[in-house]
Design a protein that fits this description.
Layout: H1 13-19, E1 24-30, E2 35-40
Antiparallel strand pairs: 1-2
């Protein structure tokens, strides 16, 4: 799995997700894990390689 930075996404995660066309519902940054958990209205397939779906 590549990181967003390695894929060329250097902006804030919320900005990147909006640019990809996602409607953001909730955001939680996890600095110790160098990641963010972002709840979106619906997934856009195929997912970018640096995104992972977390199912409830």
């Amino acid at each position: 799995m590549r990181s967003a930075y390695e894929s060329g996404a250097t902006d804030h995660p919320m900005k990147v997700m909006r640019e990809l066309g996602y409607k953001i519902i909730d955001y939680e940054g996890i600095p110790i894990g160098d990641c963010a958990i972002i709840e979106v209205e619906k997934l856009i397939e195929p997912l970018e390689k640096y995104l992972t779906e977390i199912k409830e």
